[in-house]
Amino acid sequence: MKKLLLQSSIMALLAIFAVNIANAQQPHVYINPGHGGYDSDDRNMVIYPFQQGDSAGSWESKSNLRKGLALRDILQKKGYRTSISRVTNTTADDLALSTIVALCNQSGADVFYSIHSNATGTSSRTNFPMVFYRGYTGSPQIANADVLAADLEPYLYASETTVWTHNYQIWGDWSFRPEWGTQGYGVLRGNRAVANLSEGSFHDYIPEAYRLLGLQYCWMEGWNISLGADKYFDRLGYFSQGAITGNVRDDRIKRLQECAQPFLVYDDDNLMPIHSATVRLLDDNGTEVQRTQTDTLRNGIYTFKYVNPGIYTVEVTEPSHFTQTATVTVNANGSTYQNFYLKRVRDTPPVVVDYTPVWQEGDPAVKCSTSIVLSFNWDMDSVTTCDAFTLDPPLEGDFSWEDSYYRLIFTPKDAFDVNTLYTLTLKKTAEHGGGTPMDEDFTLQFYTQPRNHLSELAVFPYEKAPVHFKTPNVELRVDSLLDSYNLFQKLRVLDSEGNELAWNKRSIKYNKRGDDYGYVRIPLTKDIEVGKDYHLILDVDIADTAGIHLPAARDIVFHGVDAGAEKPDMEVLDDFESVTGYNCSNNTITASSDRLFGSKSMQVTYDLTDYDGYWTRISAPGYLESLPHKFVEGDTLGVHVWGDMSCNDLWAVLWADDEACEKLISLGKIDYHGWRYISVPVKNLPEGDFKFAAFEIRSEGSPMCKSGTIRFDNLLRKRGTGGIDEVKLANMQLNVADDYIVVSADTWVQGIELVDVNGRTVKASGNNCLNISQVEPGVYLVRVHINGRTATQKVKL
Amino acid sequence: MLMMAAAALLPSMAQEVEVVSRQRLLQDVEGPAYYPVLNQTGDRLLFLSENGSLKYYDLTDNVTTTVADGYVAGHDACWGGDGKVYFVTQEVADNHLIYRTGKSFDPLTHKTVQLTEAQHGAVCAVAASRGGALRAPGGNSYQSQGDIGSSAWTEGSRVHITVNGEERVFSPVDSWAGYLWASLSPDGKRVAFFAAGKGIVVIDLRGQILAMPGNYEMPCWYNNDYLVAQNATDDGHQFTSSQIVLLKSDGMWKAELTKPASMAMQPTCGGGKIVYTTIDGLLYEMKINIYE
């Protein structure tokens, strides 16, 4: 009995010793599939056909678990010891970070992998693997954590089943998240295994989200992590089997954009993944070794697991595509990537099944901006189809394809010619993607409308326009309503160095339905510089709602000015600080704080619709009739006008004293926005004094002239000097003494003015005697008003 | 003084807890400090310094002493009933396996003694009423004497309870991921531990479940009736809140000792004191009064 007990004890000790020896060499990997459950922190990507919160959809917690379980099984098969923090995907599995760390520490693991996928958290999309360890990059807190990461990343990045947008990255979490200080990722904090957190790919890159739905794709990431572990523990030679994986896609059909929002795709992800393709692995005798199938989750992934080394044939079959094969070599403990691009079976010739424009004799003409669209029964070959396309008369244009080469669009570079019958012929040499041509030519005809470009009614600034520097407005007016979508991007203001000036987009004004003409008006956010040239660029693709665009791009040079610059040689007749006495029929006159001088300007809001001949007058008050405010031949009239780009004509109205004679002086067309200084000579006046009587606004009756708002500030006058002959009245005498100028005549002298060489009235009187005792010596012009007539004479004081 | 409103589970058992004091420890003396462990009398405090060194702070004479240097020099350290520190060090070998060594440190002599040879796999330092132990499942273990008194420790989904030298193993609740943080009540009659996915479990020495006070981490006995624990939340990557809570061990009452935004964590109890750290490694000593 004692002997038996001794033998049993020895056997038990040997068993323990054997376990200890095995344990001494067996790497222990702790696996933490990140997150857990289907909760708000479990990263649900909403992708068609799954609804938000649908557990069948894309969840990081779910794909992390699939990768983790695959890694566990693979590592166990490879002789590792494993521990894993969860094996199901429920909220209860979502262990706290401290718990995960403590479980790993308690397990005595050598390495720790926390498995995740990434997201940009922004609208940009990218896809590449990242691995993190605790500490600063290059200075891990746990020795070798950087080595573990460096051993893992190349295997993740080697995947050819995905589309990478960037190279892989390895970071210390303190360097990657400097805003967290040394807190770092929770599962690395306090973790005493050689620990990594891997973000295998970006699940918010939608094609990747579909791949992560696939069990085979997740298994392959687990396989690749196991290779990283093998490399780290120098065990790559310990396992004798390999894996084959790849992506099965159509060779030219585009991936469908089935999600609620269009999503970005890169490179091969543009191609349609093929569902339910049967993929067989055949040995060199043609014997099937393994068989699998791509799923229906829009990823096209197939994987063969645990394949013995050797040369194989991978065969892919799918009823709507031609079967394709490829020879692959499998290495022990290696990954073999083989993607397939299947050609569709297209068993009938291509035909045009739909087209626009549809037109026949007697139909309304087609817009000149229209595109020609041909839809086919098959995806077409781009080269032969575009070569087969002819238009008579010929027109330069661009081809584009939609719906994976099922729809061809021809867009004229400019526009179709007006009033023209076009004939399109698509010759039967056009082939579908499988190389079969059409049975017969296809033709269509259409007749175009008499308008093929936008007509510009007005633009401000126009070429060489002086533009007041204060946050100027830019406006384009055309003959039909503009398409406002992104319109502001098609107008640009550049300074002389080519720098673009910013728009104040909050104050942008567009035409609206029912308007008589199209327009867009946008102020700049900042002032321009006085004395500098600027460019207004109008893109050719500024178009109306029918797609009719400008005939050509425009580059308009304009100049920054200060409309309120001081004019020392002018005298102010009215500063418009008060608008009392001004009148404009039923239109509104107000004092406006938008002024150039003082505190007010005169604002006139007018509507010419109800006035015969489309004009109105803004009558001046009586005080402007007094002698100091009158104009005579040779004077200069100046006024500051805030234009409304109505393109109305603006006039100054002067009346003779007896109001028997009226004289209109043009102040130009109001084809500008903002303040402008208008200065005009007073010419061709009959002899005598003329009082300023009114401003007059006249339109030509175009829709854009009907109504508006203009402002006036500081009405100025400059007395005429040089170039104006002295006018002497035969019966007038001028006596210049030390202190007085005295005029004698045979009739009533209404007044005398003494005008300096700059045209400024230095002194004036309302009778025949002018005190000059305080006047500086010099040459002056004496202007004498006699019985409705004016005489001038130079004097030297 | 701060009076915390107790979140009573049962209105008829309304109680209150008063935070009598809260004081920073080792301010301007030590950098960030983590994983504090008080001894039974509450006058010595083990902690891991920022560089990973294991130190202890003597609250009676205000002196800190280094137990072991180097990152992960000492972890899961504990105070044995004999006043020694039991801890584990680790080294990564050329084959990248981690080898762990059990050691003890005597504060009286400042001598470190290697108790188990370097071995691959888990080694766990265990506090016991009369000494300490180093448990290595499947490997070489150690205990300071034949009868180390009472102790509790976890391994996988098992809690090991030793009473008068006799070890019993229990798995009273299902927990796939495992058990953690076993703690013996001061009177040695109950054990609290954490079951991943389930929360704190209080059992008697026969493994019978007495209460499950809630899903909190790192429970430790404040006295024979109350536990202090950590209540943390995260987004899967980083902590989003963390606070210290007081729990009645029968699961019938609980109260916040710090606010969720305090980011307070890793509590330890001893001698009527509570010590915890924060996410950025600030140590605090807290004293409380409980009114029943």
Which features would summarize this protein structure in a list?
heterodimer, A: 797 residues, mainly beta, Aminopeptidase, Immunoglobulin-like, 6 domains, 6-stranded mixed β-sheet, 6-stranded antiparallel β-sheet, 52 strands, 38% strand, disordered N terminus, B: mainly beta, Thrombin, subunit H
Low-pLDDT stretches of chain B: 1-12
> CATH homologous superfamily name of the largest domain in chain A?
Zn-dependent exopeptidases
Strand order of the largest sheet of chain B: 1-3-29-28-27
Number of domains of chain A: 6
* Number of helices, where a helix is a run of at least 4 consecutive DSSP H or I residues of chain B: 0
**CA distance, first residue to last residue of chain B:** 18 Å
- Quaternary state, please? heterodimer
Rg of chain A, rounded, reads 44 Å
State the separation between the terminal residues of chain A, measured CA to CA. 154 Å
Regions with little confidence, pLDDT below 50 for 5+ residues of chain A: 1-6, 8-21
Helix residue percentage of chain B: under 10%
DSSP E strands of chain B, number:
29
Task: Tell me what you see in this structure.
The complex is a heterodimer of chains A (797) and B (292). In chain A, helix 2 packs across helix 7 (215-232) and helix 4 packs across helix 7. Chain A has six domains: 26-238, 3-Layer(aba) Sandwich (Aminopeptidase); 242-342, Immunoglobulins (Immunoglobulin-like, Sandwich), CATH 2.60.40; 352-447, Immunoglobulin-like, CATH 2.60.40.3710; 475-556, Sandwich (Immunoglobulin-like), CATH 2.60.40; 571-718, Sandwich (Jelly Rolls); 732-796, Immunoglobulin-like (Sandwich), CATH 2.60.40.10. The termini of chain A are far apart. By secondary structure, chain A is mainly beta. In chain A, strands 4-1-5-10-6-9 form a six-stranded mixed β-sheet, with helices on both faces. With 292 residues, chain B is an all-beta fold. Chain B has a domain at 33-125: Thrombin, subunit H. Chain B contains no helices and 29 strands. Chain B has strands spanning 2-4, 7-8, 16-25, 33-38, 44-49, 54-58, 63-68, 75-79, 85-92, 98-106, 111-114, 119-120, 124-128, 131-135, 142-143, 151-155, 158-163, 166-170, 179-184, 190-195, 199-204, 209-214, 217-221, 226-234, 239-248, 253-256, 264-270, 273-278, 283-291. The radius of gyration of chain B is 18 Å and the shape is globular.
